[in-house]
Design a protein that fits this description.
Blueprint (H helix, E strand, L loop, with lengths): L7 H6 L17 H5 L4 H26 L4 H17 L13 H15 L2 H4 L14 H8 L10 H30 L3 H13 L4 H8 L3 H25 L4 H12 L4
């Protein structure tokens, strides 16, 4: 849904009508605060949050950058996030020196280079077993990628960044789906899914197929887009190292501030 061609959801992210002025979500919690907390629960929450946002990008990056086989890349991905918790990698991050995603990519490179598979394999993933990572799905997505076109180091760095944004959007869509069910907005989500995720249908056709006025489609899409954007920004704030980084990432992802 969010892969391959450029979908309307990416165009929608830059739509001025979605801008909502200069306001940003007021969520204060971040993975950096959580990683530096003395509360073990908060630290675990931070790692789980960063894992959900980054694990696919890490896995695909290890597969392509380090040319690792599927099983080994899975072990390394699980092991990286387990080590992140054990070695408190996030607590050593300095937002004044780099973006969090750049820091994590460099940590992945260091982890792979230093990993002794014979001694560490059984330890990998021990702290992350509660997370069910869909490696089969990630591998299927990799099958649609022209690896030769992103073979250079510069292209792989860009690939890593695009993949984590893709994961961010996927998580936001999942949360929007849950929210739509809770609020009785399933039809609005179906409009969003058909028009903004699949992107090969008109307002008029959606209205005709659903037996509702076009205005209902317009209103449903407006709600879904607004909520999607709010959710995506809240998740983005969680995985940024500072307010300044969040604002830069928000502008880069959505085209303008808040």
């Amino acid at each position: 849904m969010l892969a391959g061609r450029k979908t309307p959801i990416l165009q929608m992210a830059h739509d001025e009508s979605m801008s909502g002025g200069d306001r940003f979500p007021l969520t204060r919690w971040s993975v950096i605060e959580g990683a530096r907390s003395s509360d073990e629960v908060e630290r675990s929450r931070a790692i789980e949050t960063i894992c959900r946002a980054y694990w696919k990008a890490v896995y695909k990056y290890v597969r392509l950058r380090w040319n690792r086989a599927t099983e080994d890349a899975q072990d390394l991905t699980q092991g990286f996030f387990a080590e992140m918790l054990g070695r408190e990698l996030l607590s050593r991050f300095d937002p004044g020196k780099s973006r969090l995603r750049t820091y994590l990519r460099l940590c992945v490179d260091s982890f792979v280079m230093n990993e002794d598979k014979a001694e560490r394999r059984q330890k990998r993933g021990g702290d992350m077993q509660h997370l069910a990572l869909d490696f089969n799905g990630a591998e299927a997505e990799l099958g649609t990628i022209d690896a030769g076109a992103i073979a250079s180091a510069e292209s792989l760095d860009e690939f890593f960044e695009k993949e984590w944004i893709r994961s961010l959007f996927t998580l936001a869509v999942e949360e929007l789906r849950e929210q739509a069910v809770e609020r009785g907005k399933e039809r609005a989500f179906r409009f969003f899914e058909a028009y903004d995720l699949e992107g090969d249908i008109s307002y008029q056709k959606l209205a005709k197929e659903s037996g509702v006025p076009v205005s209902d489609v317009t209103n449903g899409l407006a709600w879904a887009r607004r909520e999607f954007r709010r959710i995506a920004l809240e998740r983005l704030r969680e995985v940024c190292g500072s307010e300044a980084e969040f604002r830069r990432e928000a502008r880069a992802t959505f085209g303008r501030e808040g």
